[in-house]
Design brief:
heterodimer, A: about 110 residues, seven-stranded mixed beta sheet, four-stranded antiparallel beta sheet, globular, B: about 110 residues, mainly beta
Amino acid sequence: DGGITQSPKYLFRKEGQNVTLSCEQNLNHDAMYWYRQDPGQGLRLIYYSQIVNDFQKGDIAEGYSVSREKKESFPLTVTSAQKNPTAFYLCASSYLAGGYNEQFFGPGTRLTVL
Amino acid sequence: AQSVSQHNHHVILSEAASLELGCNYSYGGTVNLFWYVQYPGQHLQLLLKYFSGDPLVKGIKGFEAEFIKSKFSFNLRKPSVQWSDTAEYFCAVKGRRALTFGSGTRLQVQP
């Protein structure tokens, strides 16, 4: 089945620790995205990547880092610099050609900082 | 920069009632609009989308939305809701980089 997988589903972290969230897609999509979802705030863009080895900051990139070494993978690292990391993190991907870049979403990772 | 405003944060309806969720957007470029739904415990999934052409767009599960350019609106409608429509609904506009989402509307349908 084609789709987007995110792991783990739940993640607990102590303050001061970095943690990496995995996102893999087998849809052959060009672009990948990371969003953060908080209650009452919708989804906010953290980072996005349109091509391998290139990525751009979104609206709330501070305290996060990403890499795009393979087309299929776009891991997100939540660093200790992120002041309020407890949230639900969603990864998405889309084609770029044709402009019809409907985004497909993964199941999400819920991160809790203890 | 683009933005999306969803006016209703929490809506409670009885089964068979009609639904209309408001969405207003702000964007200076070519408008591509989306409604996504997040059922409890499930992936965010696309309900419907507007790119061009007929401003009345039909989506899955009996939902539809109307793009009104003069009002910068893209309201979601369903003539008769079911208990299974209980979910959170997000309106989004495609910007230069990615999608910009509204804050979401939580719909609760009571049997």
